[in-house]
Prior knowledge:
This protein is mainly α and 686 residues long. 43% of the residues lie in helices and 2% in strands.
Amino acid sequence: YLAFAISLIGCSVLGQELSPVDQAKVDFFENRIRPVLVEHCYECHSQKTQDPSGEFRLDSAAALRKGGTRGSAVSLEMPEKSLLLRAILYEDPDMQMPPAGKLPKEVVEDFRRWIRDGAVDPRTSEDAVPVGPSKQEIAAKHWSFQPLPMQREVPPIDRFINQGLVAKGIVPNRSASQRELIRRLYYDLLGLPPTNDEMSTWMSEPLENYELWVDRLLDSPHFGERMARRWMDVSRYADNKGYVFQEDREYKFAWRYRNWLIDAFNQDMPYDRFVRFQIAADRLDTDSDHRNLDAMGFLTLGRRFLNNENDIADDRIDLITRGFLGLSVSCARCHDHKFDPISMADYYSLHATFVSNKEPKDEPGPLRLIDSENIRPAVIFMRGNPGSRGDKVPKEFVKFFSSVSRPLETGSGRMDLAEAIADTRNPLTSRVIVNRVWGWIMGAPLVDTPSDFGIRTEMPVQRELLDSMAVDFIQNEQSIKHLVKRIVMSDVYRRASAHDPEKHRIDPENRLWWRGVRKRLDFESLRDSILVATQRIDLTVGGKSIKMIRKPFSNRRTIYAYIDRQNLEGVFRSFDFASPDSHAPLRFTTTVPQQSLFLMNSPMIEHYCLAFANRLVTSESGNDPDWLINELFSSVLLRIPNLEEEKWIKEYLSGEDSNASRELPVHRVADLIKALICTNEFCFID
């Protein structure tokens, strides 16, 4: 990186034509100095960098002669005073280069010797790293920054998918079985399994009624719960602030933001309104009960960074730009973005917006923002240091996106920012949410990095499909339910997840979507499924947060769990729960022993299984092993057991199995329930 804060060099003797050239000194430069410059310096200080740090380049002798904004880097009269040497020695806190860490002592000694011997540099301008296209030129051609190709008629999803499959000679998998589809729909749309009665009812209906099934689930109040929990990963939801030293840690009304999300998804709030309310509800809310003010939990429920206003503003900038736009604007806090067309001026325009707000302390209800009386100007902090103020800059949306760029001048600027993001001409907003929803439903996004659509993100294989869906999304009033229905009605959604070696050889990552994605239940769906299987679940929608992992164990859905940002329950971490510390684009799936140990030994699981086992054993038919076994399988796995399963379970219950426990039958039944919920059949969605 060699981002020389010293902004080096103007030494007129460097690179001068030496006649005759001291060959030993030239060899020393070529063998000991040039390789270090190439490895550690050229990334930030060469011709390939359009804005070299400190206006200084190190890739030719001519560039060294020209120098930078801080003067000469090398003093031949006083070599030890050379700024270059001081920088690599880390003698000055403002001149520590390279920033990734000190060079080895022997390398530093090589530079000291080189300077002492006259800093001989035989390079010519032809040695300079070739100039490449600027960030602006690259960005102008980048796929995600292009305007959406608006169309009157949008082709069906399967047309795009099938074109790719035909081109590769792949025949897609058959459709999943009716039972697999029903279970898949329930989990993807509700986060819950069907009950045995629901499964039986749906299995008795013809497959032609599939669209009716979809509509019923979209109309369920539990649809909003499922979608809200997904969005809570994006919004880094938690019920407290994390570490704050001596002040109150609690967000006492955080749950109202969660309830607002559930209602918004259930009511199918247009996405542009969904965006606007979460950024500037105080400027938009007109309801008499001011319910939409709860949407501002999106911004206010983050970490508090010991009340450092600059870090709080940075967190909110990162949340909004990655969450809605797929841009890492926070990377421009200390320097212009290394890859994307985002400048420090862009960052500090948004920074001024978020330090010009306050949170009313005297109002009951959830935290919300209002504009401060003192609206601050946008001022660049040099190297991100608030004690080193640079130029004032205009307050405006990211300048590169000229089609939607506008001054952030209404109050703090949050309202103008919300309008720029929600503008249908914005090339990113619709693409980003469509990709997120596709990933939530299908099990993998079209763009691998849902919160980074910048220049380093390669064009997805299904780029035309993504753009087409984004256009359709806009044309259909930005309806999330319409988008979800369009996805689940497609043939590609309904494909079986079975593996095929030959198809896998051609498309190992399933980029062409020849098969469905087998998904493991996330922790919320896993716990909720156990509650459904043991007939304990409380399906009340909405309400306050509950600490449910410890006694007394709650029967509420897991979305209502109290999320402690500082001390997140270990079981959440074990099952890959999203970190509440910052925006989470994706959840990763890991397999660790703690997961199985929790299902086998957790007091919470034991509590649910024992209660269900006791109910079965003490029921009127509890002494009938055939009835008991059928009831277990139909409740947990939504099917009847096969003959082999019946045989070994009967042996276990009768005590004939050599490994059978001598405990009371109710404990044996509880152990059977735990064994069933540990199966892949229970824990995975096919």
